[in-house]
Design brief:
The complex is a heteropentamer, with 2 copies of chain A, 2 copies of chain B and 1 copy of chain C. Chain A is an alpha/beta fold. Chain A is 30% helix and 24% strand. Classes of the chains: A alpha/beta, B mainly alpha, C mainly alpha. The structure holds protoporphyrin IX containing FE, adenosine-5'-triphosphate (ATP) (2 copies) and magnesium ion (2 copies). The site of one magnesium ion has 2 residues of chain A, from loops.
């Protein structure tokens, strides 16, 4: 169990050929709950995109179960659940229909499972409401319902607490902690103070500038 | 939920995207009507802009119906991936174990079912209005059915390439038009040659071959383009 | 006092209850007029010397055309009233008028083409009036579609009202320009029967038909509006009571 | 910042929106080129779809150029308010002390400067390609200059009505086309009647009157529609 | 000074003909710093939209300096700064250009003022960067710079802390408090715990359901 699931191997990322951070080494064994911290513009979203394989790394690579993700996209994506800044929910479809198609892309969900997940995110009774008639927080809750449906081992959550009210935040933290104790890995970012007890943080500021000269020296 | 998969079945996502988009279209039913209306209206514009005498109309009818079908398809292309790009669905498509090729194919099929097919089926009515000679109706419908499918496939590639641009409608035109030209030429020639009594078999065969090729090439190209657009 | 009456007119509930009473005698009247007019026209009016029996389509065709046009203005006025006085009912009338108008326009086009086959030798001719009718169909279709696709009902009402109002300016312009276009191109190859020389034995049934169409239009508009009221006010207490009452009477009816 | 105003000067926002949109367009310069290219390509399609003999082309030339200008304008309409709606700029427009009428007018002016005007200026080239007779060039340019301005104004209303819809391109077409019809008829008749030797003065005067009316009515209607769309 | 600037007068709001809350009475004298609280979907955004005049009230009205806003739109909008969920910033324009046009809609801003405001939101040096190259938090900071440029008396801020890092949140809270002490009114929503000392809260849950029967009784 101590063999790492996810490894960031000497990772450097660039935007517009400006190096944001470099030399990030980190390995996440099962049970890791890792918060990426950093000021606005530090490169947290960039890091998460790179881990998910959406952006190429300037240097270094990301490994999943020991193999670089570029060599095993399909297997990696079967294990991945990614929730970003955006809300991929079709306004004209109902909550249930949206969860059905989102699920089909990764873990097909049954009606019963969806009903149970909606109870978890306090959207019971909204199964058939069209999503355009939801508030900002309710829309994000539809996405978060996926956490209760997916069987993916790696969760990447970019500011998952956005627009969620206090009781919702507590529930979400509990879900993340449970996933970690079940042997999953959670990578997330947030600027809010959290109530959760056990999580590690990775501060991107530590990999900035100071590292950059050494890059140039190479 | 327990962690770990018993293997993702390729095709699940394909069916889900098909169902999702067809449901969406059904919810906004007018979406199906609109390309038809565009088609109808622009054909109506024609005799208003030019001399509407029967003879002249009959000569330009096959070409005009084909040109307007092309423009109607073109107009509806921009929305093919736009919404999925804006709301982040595209990222989810890419991050799914299902090959992107299949997702693109599902979207193209829905596009054709809701745009090209209705256009082809309504074309005979426009033929009447433009006094198309009797022999032209079947070749018109058949060539449009195959031709619009090819145009949807080519259009998917164009839409994928331009989805990350701000105002893409016109760049899209630029990319797609040169590829549409051969389809247009073959298609309208098929109709006019069968009106002239030479039969439509050769033209239809050519279109069929083009369709097979487009099916192989275009979704792959579109999938590649989508991957590029996503990491803007 | 007058003002109060005006605002009562804007109340869907008031309209629904009043119109139930109107319908009792108005529905039979308009159906009877329709039967008389069409029956007289199709069955008893004399045969036309030039066109034979095919001219009888005029009894369906001409009143439909006249009402399709008038219907557009009725729709636009309803929309304007709704926008200006912020009342619900006129919007419902407007929304109901659109599909009825579109149907009449389609009827005109269909009967016209059917008539065109024997007289002009073709189903379709690019004649000024035909084009105008086709464009009117598009104008109606625009409103029907817009009402359908808008996400929220209030917004849909106002948007349709704006479109209808802009359309009222445009309808005469379209009419004139199409006419102008027609006169610049080649002259008509086939002349229609001269309107003024129509014989009185044909004129009277035609007048009855026009009257019947007006009544029938009003009837259809009332019925559509009532349906719209029920759909929109489905959650209000009076509609719920109404539904319960009907449910009871239906059950009573079943028992008998 | 201290609280309190010394009075907002109407017109400040107008100039700012003009400057903002012109700068945006200048940054994506290809946006200006694209309607032109669409225009060019679709005129090029014409001889491919129909019999390209000189005589036939000359007859249909004025009408065709006008129809294609109309379609090019139409294609570029959807993006008129789309981005402002999606990113919330529209809410800021509404919540400004500046009358919404002026904001709409600024956007329409930019649209016309970047779409209609270039089309009108390039039209003579297309006239040559379609062998338009010599007398038609000036009337063609002038009628297009006025006509595209009217079409931008009408289009602004259509775009405002449909900006809150998901896939609006085709509903927009449906709404706007019937209103474009008189412009098309008057415009193409102006050209063909001056080719036939009857002069273009009457047609241009009619177009001018239509422009004045559109200036009065359309921005008001568009502003009303934007207010409605914003509180969806 | 005790005369209220903003008054919510028996305000009720509906969505899809479902009453969200009703009978909200509240008057804000100069110096009010009011947080609207409520769970996701309670109607906070709806309330703020109604106060700004974007949505019609189902019943009751909003008054500014004693007069209903519907009677004095232009004067009211001169006094209003509204920042919502969305980010009205054109990606292809630079930060400075964006602030220029945003300002021209209400309080035209000078170059010097913009430079000073950008320092306040930690975006100094980004004046000429195109906005598409900013991170989520940086984009929102461009908007927040307006707080240092505007002379409006009423600020309506819908979840202004979204995507802002910790130090940014502290600065923003200070700016809001300063506006209140200067005699302005701030209405805002947020689900985050705040460090500010003095602000009042208006809980929307108090105006739900319980009030509804009394409406029907009338
Ligand atoms: C699709 C084809 C047609 C359309 C769209 C059409 C349209 C119209 C319209 C709009 C009117 C009403 C005019 C008014 O109320 O002022 C009308 C009236 C009339 N139509 Fe047609 N029509 C069509 C075909 C025909 C044909 C083929 C005939 C007969 C040869 C015909 C004969 C008449 C007559 C006699 C009237 C009444 C006379 C008058 O009021 O001017 N129509 N039609
Ligand atoms: N466009 C809409 N059409 C219909 N109903 C809507 C619409 N927008 C929101 N609603 C409904 O109105 C209610 C209140 O929404 P609102 O956005 O005001 O909530 P909120 O308090 O801002 O929530 P959040 O904390 O999630 O932002 C929600 O229950 C939602 O379902
Ligand atoms: N599309 C892009 N093109 C060029 N540069 C970009 C782009 N997106 C972001 N950047 C730059 O990369 C840096 C990191 O951005 P990123 O979005 O990763 O920050 P972040 O840590 O997620 O910040 P936030 O807390 O605001 O979300 C920023 O300084 C930004 O200027
Ligand atoms: Mg980020
Ligand atoms: Mg909200």
């Amino acid at each position: 169990m101590s063999e790492p699931l996810l490894t960031l191997n000497n990772l450097s990322c660039e935007r517009d050929s400006r190096t944001l951070f470099s030399g990030v080494h980190y390995s996440c064994p099962p049970g890791t709950l890792l918060q990426i911290v950093g000021f606005n513009g530090a490169g947290k979203t960039t890091l998460l995109h790179t881990v998910a394989g959406l952006l190429p790394a300037a240097c270094g690579d990301v490994r999943w179960r020991g193999r670089p993700i570029a060599q095993q996209r399909q297997a990696f994506y079967q294990d991945l659940l990614y929730l970003g800044h955006q809300v991929p929910v079709k306004p004209q479809l109902s909550v249930r229909e949206n969860l059905l198609w989102l699920g089909a892309l990764n873990t097909p969900a049954t009606e019963a499972a969806i009903a149970a997940a909606l109870v978890e995110v306090d959207l019971a009774g909204f199964e058939d409401s069209p999503c355009y008639a939801l508030s900002a927080g309710q829309k994000r809750r539809v996405l978060l319902a996926q956490l209760y449906l997916s069987r993916a081992a790696l969760w990447i959550l970019d500011e998952p607490f956005t627009a969620i009210d206090k009781s919702g935040v507590l529930k979400l933290e509990a879900a993340m902690a449970r996933h970690a104790t079940n042997g999953g890995v959670v990578l997330f970012t947030s600027h809010q103070p959290l109530a959760m007890a056990e999580f590690t943080t990775l501060d991107l500021s530590a990999f900035q500038l100071s590292e950059q000269p050494s890059e140039e020296a190479i | 939920m327990p962690i770990g998969h018993d293997g993702y079945q390729v095709g699940t996502g394909f069916k889900a995207i098909l169902r999702r988009d067809l449901t969406s279209v059904w919810r906004n039913r007018s979406d199906i009507a609109s390309p038809l209306v565009f088609f109808l209206i622009s054909i109506t514009l024609l005799p208003l802009g030019v001399d509407p005498s029967d003879k002249l109309l009959a000569v330009i009818a096959p070409g005009m119906i084909w040109i307007m079908a092309l423009l109607a398809t073109l107009l509806s292309l921009d929305s093919l991936f736009r919404q999925d790009y804006d709301d982040g669905s595209l990222t989810q498509f890419i991050l799914s174990p299902q090959p992107l090729y299949l997702t693109v194919l599902a979207k193209v099929i829905v596009h054709w079912l809701t745009t090209g097919l209705p256009l082809a089926l309504i074309a005979p009515v426009l033929g009447v209005m433009l006094s198309l000679p009797a022999g032209g109706y079947w070749p018109l419908v058949l060539s449009l059915i195959i031709g619009t499918a090819i145009m949807s496939l080519i259009g998917a590639m164009g839409a994928a390439l331009t989805v990350c641009l701000r105002s893409s409608a016109l760049v899209l035109t630029l990319i797609v038009m040169p590829l549409y030209l051969p389809v247009l030429i073959i298609g309208s020639n098929t109709v006019s040659s069968s009106v002239a009594g030479f039969g439509a078999a050769q033209g239809l065969a050519l279109l069929g071959a083009a369709l097979a090729m487009a099916l192989l090439v275009m979704p792959v190209a579109a999938a590649g383009a989508l991957r590029i657009s996503s990491n803007h | 006092m007058a003002w109060q009456w005006f605002h009562r007119l804007g109340s869907p509930r008031w309209f629904y209850e009043k119109s139930s009473r109107w319908l009792v005698w108005f529905a039979p009247l308009s159906i009877a007029l329709m039967l008389v007019g069409i029956g007289w026209g199709l069955g008893f009016a004399p045969i036309d010397s030039k066109q034979g029996d095919s001219y009888r389509i005029i009894f369906i065709h001409m009143p439909a055309a006249a009402l399709a046009l008038a219907g557009y203005y009725i729709m636009a006025i309803a929309g304007a009233v709704g926008l200006i006085w912020k009342m619900k009912l006129p919007f419902m009338v407007m929304k109901s008028a659109a599909p009825i108008g579109a149907a009449l326009t389609i009827l005109t086009l269909a009967t016209g083409s059917l008539w065109g086959h024997p007289t002009w030798g073709t189903f379709w001719e690019w004649d000024a009036r035909n084009i105008f009718m086709l464009v009117l169909l598009f104008l109606y279709a625009g409103i029907v579609v817009l009402a359908e696709v808008y996400p929220s009902r209030d917004a849909a009402d106002k948007a349709c009202a704006i479109l209808a109002l802009v359309g009222t300016i445009n309808v005469p312009i379209i009419y004139k320009s199409v006419d102008w276009w027609y006169s610049l191109h080649q002259p008509a190859s086939i002349k229609l029967t001269g309107g003024s020389t129509i014989h009185s034995s044909m004129l009277y049934p035609l007048l009855v038909c026009i009257l019947a169409y007006y009544c029938f239009y009003t009837l259809a508009l009332i019925l559509y509006t009532r349906r719209e009221i029920l759909v929109r006010e489905a959650r209000t207490s009076w509609v719920l009571e109404l539904a319960q009452g009907q449910g009871k009477s239906n059950k009573a009816g079943d028992g008998l």
